[in-house]
Amino acid sequence: MASDLDFSPPEVPEPTFLENLLRYGLFLGAIFQLICVLAIIVPIPKSYEAETEPSEPRSAETTRKTKAAIPSANKRPKKETKKKR
């Protein structure tokens, strides 16, 4: 009965190129996700904002002109429909 048992290690096939590509791609994706999560959690010092103060504040007229010149992407032009009689 003891001679019937086979304790040799199972044969595992060598991973193919696509399996290796998938494996390392998943590792890179996981590292990228960790970097993104850490970028959200860890605050960045905003010392550069004090150095780059605008030398001349904008007037209200120039602000209104720029807002009027750029049409909103959400607003579509109205369709002209003919009246049904």
From TrEMBL:
Predominant localisation class: membrane
GO CC terms in record: membrane
Name of the protein in its database record: Mannosidase beta like
Family: Belongs to the UPF0239 family.
Keywords: Membrane, Transmembrane, Transmembrane helix
Subcellular location: Membrane
Entry superkingdom: Eukaryota
InterPro entries per the UniProt record, alphabetical: UPF0239
Gene for this chain: MANBAL
Basic and acidic residues composition bias: residue spans: 55-64
Transmembrane annotation, as ranges: 24-44
Biased segments, Basic residues type: 75-85
Short name of one Pfam family: UPF0239
Topology versus the membrane: Single-pass membrane protein
Location of the region described as Disordered in the Swiss-Prot/TrEMBL record: 48-85
